[in-house]
Amino acid sequence: MESNNNPTTASTDEAFPASSNVSLLNCIDLSSPDIQESVSLLKQACLESGFFYVVNHGISPDFMDEVFSQSKNFFDLPINEKMKLLRNEKNRGYTPTLDEYLDPVNQVNGDYKEGYYIGIEVPEDDQEAEKPFYGPNIWPATDLLPGWRQTMEKYHQEALEVAKKVARIIALALNLDADFFDKSEIAAKPIATLRLLHYEGRVSNPSEGIYGAGAHTDFGFITLLATDEVVGLQICKDRHANPRKWEYVTPLKGAFIVNLGDMLERWSNCIFRSTLHRVLGSGQERYSIAFFVEPSHECVVECLPSCKSETNPPKFPPVKCVTYLSQRYKDTHADLSLYQNH
Q1: What is the pLDDT of residues 252-293, one digit of tens each?
Q2: What is the pTM of this model?
Q3: Structural domain includes residue 148
Q4: What is the number of structural domains in the chain?
Q5: pLDDT in the model for residue 90
Q6: What is the pairing mode between strands 27-29 and 51-55?
Q7: 248 - beta bridge partners?
Q8: Does residue 342 sit within a domain?
Q9: 290 φ/ψ sector (left φ>0, alpha ψ -120 to 50, else beta)
Q10: How far apart are CA 86 and CA 96, in angstroms?
Q11: Helix, strand, coil shares, percent, the chain, to 5
């Protein structure tokens, strides 16, 4: 992809519904030798919107296309085959449509999307597998989806490398050493979760509580999102506004849309923003691939020294990463006992 360090807008208005607001997002070029410019652009994005693009990240366009193709192959399977791979208590495997309920105040049903969770592979006999979010993945049979596991494992590894590069720029933007988040074991023992997503062709209707994905903030550190070219993602820069103003994010082929999670907002004492976002269905099928990156289980997230002062004391108590994440997943996903008849 051609590098572009300027705020990026949609190349055409025809992709968006009439009278839509479209967000301007900064673009971070990971191949740029000018690290200070990257830090400046990222810092501005983190202060203003909590969302930005990352381009020239090192994952080839052909391989990105292959991942999307393999994702579609899975979601094209009959529902009975997908239900055999239903997610477990480690949040690995298939999540059916309506399984996730991100905005119960405004949603009449769960999200009109289905998904598939893939984490870091930890053998069942490994002591680490006893921890939440660690353990073996659930994989489709090889004869059902040839090459599927190899594709997803390779993508997981490559996306994690991109996330580490972004984390180093974030550290510099917070006046920390570049390797600060590496020391939080984001490099060594992260909770890194790949989630394939498929939005069915249902038209969302916010006035009736119907959404592709309800309004929410992400739970963890950062999220790398790859999308197809179908419009759907919206962000709200001021979650306390009444009424809220929603802006579409332009799909940018080959780029990651990166957003900050609640854990980084806590770390930064709300200086950097975890921004409310949602997905509205337009009547077209939509595919996206989210990569959620968190520190290790034992990492204690507490206000960074560079983000507090006498006039701006810490707003949150320290919390262990695993404690925080476990509660957030429990709050937003259906109880697995609901699927016992399948």
Answers
A1: 989 999 999 999 999 999 999 999 999 999 999 999 999 999
A2: 0.91
A3: yes
A4: 1
A5: 87
A6: parallel
A7: 22, 234
A8: no
A9: beta
A10: 8
A11: 30, 20, 50
> How far apart (Å, rounded) are the C-alpha atoms in residues 216 and 91?
19
**339 in a domain, yes or no?**
no
**Type of residue numbered 304:** L
Residue 276's H or E segment, with its range, is strand 276-279
Helix (H, G, I), strand (E, B) or coil at 260: strand
How do strand 51-55 and strand 256-260 relate by DSSP bridges? antiparallel
Encode pLDDT of 214-261 as tens digits.
Answer: 999 998 999 999 999 999 999 999 888 888 899 999 999 899 999 999
- Is residue 204 exposed (0-12), middle (13-18) or buried (19+ Cβ within 10 Å)? buried
58-80 CB burial, b ≥16 within 10 A, e <16: ebeeeebeebbebbebbbebeee
DSSP 220: S
Tokens 């570049």, residue located: 178
DSSP SS3 for 28: strand
Domain limits at 168? 13-333
- CA 161/CA 63 separation, integer angstroms: 15
Q: In this prediction, what percent of the chain has a pLDDT beyond 70?
A: 92
Q: What is the CA radius of gyration of the chain?
A: 19
- Between CA 244 and CA 242 the distance in angstroms is 5
Cis peptide bond N-terminal to 17, omega within 30? no
The answer as to whether 198 is a domain residue is: yes
Rounded CA-CA distance 184/181 in Å is 5
Instruction: Work out the burial of residue 244: count CB atoms within 10 Å of its CB; fewer than 13 is exposed, 13-18 middle, 19 or more buried.
Output: middle
C-alpha span between 30 and 88 (Å, rounded)? 36
Give the Cα separation of 46 and 116 in Å (integer): 28
Q: What is the CATH number of the domain that holds 313?
A: 2.60.120.330
Which token pair is 108? 């009449």
